[in-house]
Amino acid sequence: MILDELRNRTTVVDIKNHPYIVSIQKEMIHSCCGTIISSSWIMTTSRCLTQPGSDVQLVDTTKIAVVAGQSQLGLGKMQLRRAKNLFLHNRFVKKMLLNDIGMINLYEPFELNDYVNVVLLASSISKPYKFFSSCYVISWTVYRKDFLSFDKLRAEDEKTKKLFKVPELQQIDLPTITYEECCDRIEAKDFITRNQICTEYGTLKNISCPADAGSPLICGERQYGIFSWGIGCEDDDYPGVFTKVSSFRKWINNIEMDPNVYIFRNKGVLGIRLKHSIIILVEMFIFIMK
What is the value of pTM for the model shown? Predict the structure, then answer.
């Protein structure tokens, strides 16, 4: 019944209707989703930017590419940009996926047009998401068995094309639920905070799968959430959990305005204020010289 309802809520959409969504690729294979918040900046999850395993280790930036402008991944015109720097939230907790938000700074900005453009972000003064009758998630239908490389998708051989399913951009209407209801249904209150948004359902085969991390939750015309996690990859009976964008607007703005104030390392502290560290070192030097 739930799967039937979700199928009725799902429609194939054109990238022109959602030009802000991008495919974040690791070694040219779709890994997760993100959104364009300015021509040089992509917003996604911290989970997307870290290597597999319990340790918080950044992915090698040379292996990350961001693809925009395609309704079907690997087919048609696209814009491809390389990652320059990766930014994780300084309070990201990987084991619990708390503060699961990250950003990518691109080497070259996207050329904005009808197929590639920025998303409007929710803020503290935006209409609360709970006032919308329904929100929706945008994602490609990438199943775990169908992680595809562009080389295979571009192949002219008809036999090769039949072996792989081309991921299509889809919109799934999902009503949101309260914090209390989300905690009750997931039965893991420690994993849910007020900095997250939950939707009534989490999956339609793909919406709780790793490739959907970073997918935007759109309410009205603004992005209110970033898909973070769900229970299982095909279990439609649990809510989907999204990072609440409005809770992190200050952090987003700080990174955009001056990314050099943050430095990162693969282990230990994820973010420190570089400027503050320099000031402390200068003060120590002056003290020693006295």
Answer: 0.81
